[in-house]
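Continuing from the previous page...

OK, I double-checked the sequence for (Fe-S)-binding protein against my notes and this is the correct one:
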Amino acid sequence: MKTFLDWSGYKDAGMGDAYADIPREGGDFAKAVAVCINSRQCEANGKQVMCPSYRLSGNPNLSTGGRVRLLKAALNSDLVEQALADPALAEAMDLCVSCKGCKRECEVNVDMPLIKAEFLAQRADRQGLGVRSRLFAHLPRWLHHAPWLKPLVRWQNSLPLLAGLSGRLLGLTTHRPLPEPAANPFELQDQALESAAVKREGLPEVVLLVDTFSRHFEPGVAHAALQVLHAGGYRVLIARAESADAEPDRPLCCGRTYLAQGLVEEARHEAGRLVRALLPHVQAGRLVVGLEASCVLGLRDDAQALGLGAEVEIVARQTLLFEEFLARESTAKRLHLPLQALPGGESLVHGHCHQKAVGAMKSMRKVLKLVPGHEFRLLDSGCCGMAGTFGLEREHAALSSAMAEQVLLPALRAAPEARVIANGFSCRQQMRAHGDARAQHLAELLRDALASRDGDR
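Thanks. Re-ran it with the corrected sequence; updated structure tokens here:
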């Protein structure tokens, strides 16, 4: 059986364990599946993320362990390719929202999202990809090469006839708007901002990784992060493709959109561009700081399975989320932001699943405490349900909304005057799709709390 991701990290998994029950087919991929010990912790009721679709449905096939059992059966089959196309397995993998909750909460850290990426790659190799999947996968490219397509999104959101047409042709839901690209992406102004601050002595230099979604959809988040870092006295460089790159003018991308659709080779290409661009900065002693948890986790975790060599690990070790960087600098007594109290009222904080997967909510709490008199509450809201493109797909939209209705949306309705902090782009889009536009990134909240902005309030 041909596999598309590098599973060699699991080559010793189950060795010497008579109960490992490693499937016959799949090699090291089969070992990655077989690390599950069938404890059914993933089917427990409690304060955990995994698995959103199981928590909502109670269907054991939709738990992490349930997916493992189905995959094992397929990999033990005499006709593996046909078994991998089994409808029950296809449904179970289709409804995995790649939250990474299992990677943190499972006793043996089963990485079902990465296993799903291999499953999708297998399926794409067997039957190809549909138009919708290709459209979503190539989003970073068309945003750069075909900006004239951006008005189509606005028309889709404002014209019911066009929305209905795209619903029929592409399988998009007509019950929520698509995220609209900003008129001016981030790169139009970043060079001036990059040189806007003078570095304080003793502070590390920062390379800001502006992801596809911050760059093209919410450039204000990246601008806010720059303002905060500059206010702290940090010199900030913007991560850009190296001059020797085949497309030096195209912004960097972690490859997440490709991996999410099973296009491993394309994801490998994008992650390779990113690593090659960041490696010289890391070797020069700079820290890489990212704004979007799924992109940072893509570099620190998923990219390790793309077969890119030791350089990925070198870069990953020096890559932090924005909140992780600020918390670390605060602990080291190097962070001195001129923050002042915000207008009255508490903040509700919703964590992106990938923030929770890397333990970054502790960093969020530490940084939020830096704002004088700031009252905030971390919501035990699980997964918001948007999960990248999941909530935009017609067949998944209702389930996506039901996930949001478990905790998140009721909590927002119960506190209509509260500020809302959500660092995940998908999470903010889910809230807006359900009529609540309050959510902002932590960088925007800190920018608003900078004392130098007092006159702007």
